[in-house]
């Protein structure tokens, strides 16, 4: 293959190229850079970046173009010319090219890569993201791998829709495509119970003539089916999410919406009884929309308790128990969340007063509390703070306080006054977008000796580390990735800043 290709036109749909895959990007796509002249002018060279689904580092492939935006070209593998020695046969029937029936699932991006190689790739993804942000002098450790690389997710949200044959589906979207839903026959990220439950619920809804919701047409009723289950307690919570309509169409005609929800709940309970399994809570949540009004959720318990319980086991044998309701965030891989918590604790050193900024439902702060003198959490969402306070009380934790309000306002408030000037470590665990611009100002105002940053997105981590370094908080030690999501490109990281 020539160093510079001579192309009659820029890459376009259905063109094929022979490519060498150099690495994976932050979305798990194989990257190949191609230099080329375009058209009759051979004096100007352009660089096209090909992003190839299901291609692995070191592979040589023939790839077919499916889209292009400027010089970024998306492609799919048409022929595998030289496979990676780390390539393995996928376990799931839904892994494969998107144009094949019921394949191309977006749930697993790395299932064709051997697990040790997945960890190596994730380390490189973190390294590349830091270097791209100009953070070049901070080493990246080998990721802390998971003991269970399948059936590890404690929460999975499945969508109702139709497949390409317009049959009712319950499953996940194909990668990069949100018009069809794969009609899943199995999923190896969730428990065997949940994997077997999906077709049961789908077949019931299909037989009864219930319709999935279509946003483009604003028609239909069924939206989501979510299962949450704890590997420690064995408890399960199932949630059916629908539109806010009072009635729904069925094969028998128009029926009350509540009848549909209860029919699904009864099917779940009957399946659980036949399996000898437990379901502790079933919710029906309606997504209510009205012109000129904010969309809101209305939830009703159809069976069982208002929460299910998760447990996290901490260093030294301490276990914390959390009541989790449908809107509460909880790490979807609890066993690896325990590893993540241990990494955070190791970086707190001799800190005695810890501030958990943007604490959400307080999971991280509560994990830290048994090992320090005081924890104060700050969170904008009042419901999350109430959940954190309830979990602290349930675990007998008396040295953790959670304050609701805008972080800047809380840090200046009388309520925070007793901690002002005493905080010697701060925890930040932002969403994928990373820290908001004002967060750096908040950390400067707090002036902790240590900042422990937990990241779920290497790109925003690199950007924020550069911003924090400019504000005086520089890395003290390597970045430690922790793999909470085997078979996918996602990776968590922990780093200490001083």
Q: Please, could you describe this protein's structure?
A:
The protein contains nine helices and 24 strands. With 498 residues, the chain is an alpha/beta fold. The chain folds into three domains: 4-85, OB fold (Dihydrolipoamide Acetyltransferase, E2P) (Beta Barrel); 155-308, OB fold (Dihydrolipoamide Acetyltransferase, E2P) (Beta Barrel); 331-497, Vaccinia Virus protein VP39 (Rossmann fold), CATH 3.40.50.150. Strands 1, 2, 3, 4, 5, 6 and 7 form a seven-stranded mixed β-sheet that branches. Strands 20-19-18-21-22-24-23 form a seven-stranded mixed β-sheet, with helices on both faces. A hairpin with a 5-residue loop joins strand 3 and strand 4 (30-38). The longest helix has 19 residues, at 257-275. It is globular. It starts with a strand and ends with a strand. The model has no long low-confidence stretch (mean pLDDT 95).
| Helix percentage range | 10-25%
CATH class of the largest domain: Alpha Beta
Q: Counting H and I runs of at least 4 residues, what is the number of helices?
A: 9
What number of domains? 3
Oligomer: single chain
Comma- or semicolon-separated keywords:
single chain, 498 residues, alpha/beta, OB fold (Dihydrolipoamide Acetyltransferase, E2P), Rossmann fold, 7-stranded mixed sheet, 9 helices, 23% helix, globular
Task: Describe what is shown at a glance.
The chain is of the alpha/beta class. The protein contains 9 helices and 24 strands. The model has no long low-confidence stretch (mean pLDDT 95).
List the helices and strands and how they pair.
Blueprint lengths: L3 E4 L8 E5 L2 E2 L5 E9 L7 E8 L6 E10 L2 E11 L32 H18 L22 E8 L5 E4 L20 H17 L13 E8 L6 E8 L3 E4 L2 E4 H19 L5 E10 L2 E12 L3 E6 L5 E6 L9 H15 L4 E5 L5 H6 L5 E6 L2 H13 L5 E5 L2 H6 L12 E4 L8 H10 L3 E6 L2 H13 L9 E3 L9 E6 L1
